[in-house]
Amino acid sequence: MPPSLQDIVFDVLPAISCILAILFKVQSIELRAEGKLFWNTLSSKFCTAFQTCLRFRPIKEVVISNINVFPLDSFDDSKHLKKLLLSGQFTSGERVSTLSYPCLSSLRVETQPAEGQPASDLTKLVSWTKTNTLHTLTLRMHQRMDLPNFMPLIKACSNNTGQSRA
Fold this sequence. Notes:
By secondary structure, this protein is α/β, with parallel strands linked by helices. The protein has a domain at 27-38 and 58-159. The protein contains 4 helices and 7 strands, in the order αβαβββββαβα. A 5-stranded parallel β-sheet has the order 1-2-4-6-7, with no helix packed on it. Helix 3 packs parallel to helix 4. The termini are far apart.
C-alpha cells in the first residue's frame, strides 16, 4: 500500500522546517495542501519556522491554501507583507496583539468551512484594513451562509477614506 499524503508530509516536515529558517531572500511563500490539512497536526518546529518566515522583511506575498485552523495572528508583525491570499478555514489565533499589522495592498479571502469546525474568524482582518493601503479586496463565498462572516470586513473597507475598494 502506498504511503498516505499525511505520512509523506510528516516525513519531510523536519527537512522543510530547517530550510525555511535559512531562506532570508525569499519574497513570496505559498503553503498549500492538495487535500485538507489541519495546522495543529503539523510539526511544532515547522509551524514555528514558517511563522518566523512570515515576519522577514523581504516577504511581500503569502498564499495559505487548504491549511485549516491556520492562526491569523501568525501575521502580527508582518508589516512588510503586501499581498495575502487566504483559502481555507482560519482562526484569529491565541495572541492578542496591537502590534504592527500588515499594510496590505491586496487581500483575497476564500472561506472553505471544515467539517466539524466553526466558521472562519475574520475579525483580525478588519483591523488590517484600517491602514488605508488596501487597493484590491477579493472575497469568495462558497455558500450564502458565508456572507455574514464577510460583512465586518466589507463594512470596514467601505468606511475607509483611502483608495480601498470592496
